Amino acid sequence: MTSDGPTYSHRRRNSAERIARSLAGASTVPYWLDSPDRPTPEPRLVGQVTADLLVVGGGYSGLWTALIAKEADPSRDVVLIEGKEVGWAASGRNGGFFEESLTHGVDNGERHFAEELPELDRLADENFDEFVATLDRLGIDAEFEHTGVLTVATEPHQVDALREVSGDGVFLDREAVQALVHSPVYLAGQREWKSTALVHPAKLAWGLKRACIEVGVRVFEHTPATRLRRSGDGVAVTTKQGGVQARHVALATNGFPSLLKRTELLTIPVYDYVLMTEPLSPEQLESIGWTDRFGIADSSREFHYSRRSADDRILYGGFDAVYHRGGRIRPEHDQRRETFETLADHFFTTYPQLDVRFTHAWGGMIDMCSRLSAFQGTALGGRVAYSAGFTGLGVGATRFGAKVMLDLLSGESTELTRLKMVRSKPIPIPPEPFANPAIQTVRRAVARSDANEGRDGLLLKVMDRFGIGFDS
Description:
Structural class: alpha/beta
Distance between the termini: 25 Å
Strand content: 15-25%
Helix content: 25-40%
Number of helices: 14
Radius of gyration: 22 Å
Oligomer: single chain
């Protein structure tokens, strides 16, 4: 093991043999989806049906939209279609961090929505409380744990930055952070309890699906939408074996190819990758001191996130945010050996006292936009609403986005539709062949910033001035 350079980089600190041994035999199925609790898919749509509201997409965004719409008006005929299975994409393979923020953190919120940040903070609190109340009311066992997060410094320059962070967190010096987690690379930390919770991602999606069906939403799986067009006083959506004629449509397809031309350049698919260890024994957990159940994130721009599962595994992900040339979304992109080896190396750098293997290694697509926080809007004369661009913070914010879409479809002016966050859109991302070289240039600039004690170069400074962000 070497110790030159920054704590985390693409330069290996651990032996190739140790890394290879730890990854041998790892399942390619996301751990959360590799479960006997996985429900049987609903039938595919064959033929033509009608609906008051059609929801396209069976992730969190679509599920919340269908559920809220049907509960608000039980007589409303709501149909949800999903191209594969509910929760199979980002909603079933993320880290399970439910962050209260709607703006991708305070700094990003101040960059884009400073004048309405107090209102957005209040709405975020309300969304968090309503989210939890819905799980309780409907008996959705998503393994919800309101345990907060520990943000750690792994480089000397990050220590003072953590010390200066405002909010409800408590700064921890090296001795205090080591009392919580025994890692040689953790130099300081900030412990926060309020704004972050943990969930089992797939169980959340499956629970929302069950709730939708129980209140009368018609759910069709393995039913990809292929076309959307105006039809009379409504909207027609074509599927592979049929179609839906609806008064209104809510598009919850996030990073997948848009059915609307106007949103094609507002998001890009960026892949994130994750490892899950075998279950740790009490002795192994004691050796790293991580006996509480909070999540952990480090302070680098290319950051890692980690958490414990209910059966005491450690999920470890992040660092690499990979844009595949052409913006293509393909099953083979879910596996990336180079990134898995990098994550394994970083894991053993963080916890050298652990000799474990990883039972699951997977990746998945995140819908990223240039302002890092979700956007909403309408099309076809207000008959269609869309919500996308959650950039990795969709576990909780998708519920808020669902409410915005329904308010937009109502045609009424509401507190949500008047928000600048809703009325504005992110800066478009250039199409290929320009996107790939531009994104790779920015990624290299982010890596240089981390290696240069967090000091941004000219490119990142210019981007920040124009309100464009790019983090893992």
